[in-house]
Every structure is written in C-alpha cells, then in structure tokens.
Amino acid sequence: MLHDSLADIFLSFSQLNVLLIIALAGFFLISKPLFFQTACLTAFDIVVNVALKGTFKVPLVAWLGKGYAFPSGHMQLSTVFYLWLAWHTPRRPLKLLIAAILSAVGAGLMHYGYHNFYDILGGLLFGGILTTLYWYSSLKYAVYMPWILAISASLLMIYNKLQYDLIPNHCWFGYYCLLGFILAERVLSRDEHKQYWRLVVWG
C-alpha cells in the first residue's frame, strides 16, 4: 500500500497544470518542435479519450459521481504525453524515468480507487495506439498534420455530441487548446511552420 502523500506525488505527474509547465519549459529550453507537437497531441488526446469513454460507457465508481471510467483519462493523457517524449530521446535513463512515471501514475490511480486495473490498462493501450498513429502520420504527412488534427478533432466533437447530453468541459478545453495552438503556430511562424511539425530527437 502507498502512503497518501506518495500517491499524491505520483498523481501530480498526470495533472494538466504540471504537464503544461513541462511542455512550456521544454518548448523554450529544449526543442520547440518537439514540445509544440507534444502539446498538440496532448490536447487532441483529451478529445479522443472523451469519445472512447462515450463509446464504451463503463460507469465510474459510485462515490466519484456521474461519468465514465474506461479508459482512464489520466492514464491515457500521461501515456500520450510521456510516451511521445520517450519516443524522441535516445537516452535509456530518460526512457526508464518515463516508464517509472507511468507506472507511478497507474499506482496512484489504483491507490485511491479512481480506476481499476482494466481502466488503467485501457488508458495505456489507447494512449500507445494514438501515439503510434500520430507518429506514423507525421512521417508521411508532416506538412498536413495541423489540418489532420483539426479536422479529426472536429469530427470527434460531433461524435461526442451524439454520445453525451453535455460534452464534458475538459473536452471543450482540449479542443479549443488544440485549435489555439495550431492557429498561433500558423500566425506566428508563417515561414517556419514546417519546422514545428517535423520529427525531432532530443536528449
């Protein structure tokens, strides 16, 4: 059994505000293309996860209120964010650190009973699939990725509207963040936009 304070530390690595700080720091200090794509992929993942939950409709445990549990949103979000970074570093210690972070997030979610093992496994699985699909698409269609993401997210929002009485607020947040990131990149980097969508290696 984990101590609550340790579980809280583990779960902090899955919080959006922490991921935002990491992405901003990485953008300015390490690699603008890598962390810009990380932010876009993370925002897109939020929309994808809501669509998946609306499809499977596995209810949360009663004490958490209304909503769906599978796949775990925090686990899927963490998987996409950290796996994308791990994918682009050749350093084994960094890859091991990221694997440890994902294991810790899963342990924290189970410690508090927010999710069961299958919810967490689902988050890992779908996060891995999404990251792989994004990587493959980026290899073949890098210059079109802004439009691929924007159109895909918009279609998923239409699907989400059909699955929910009210689309969850965090889904709208992810959708608008994604569109905002793309628009800002188009406006501020007109002559360099291809650089932000190329695949890079760091570390």
UniProtKB/TrEMBL annotation:
What keywords is this UniProt entry annotated with?
A: Membrane, Transmembrane, Transmembrane helix
Query: Does the record bear Transmembrane in its keywords?
Result: yes
Q: Which organism is it from?
A: Legionella quinlivanii
Q: Which intervals hold domain Phosphatidic acid phosphatase type 2/haloperoxidase?
A: 56-138
**One protein family per Pfam:** PAP2
Protein name in UniProt: PAP2 superfamily protein
Superkingdom of origin organism: Bacteria
- TM ranges: 6-27, 34-56, 68-87, 94-114, 120-136, 143-160, 172-188
What does the record give as the organism's lineage?
Bacteria, Pseudomonadati, Pseudomonadota, Gammaproteobacteria, Legionellales
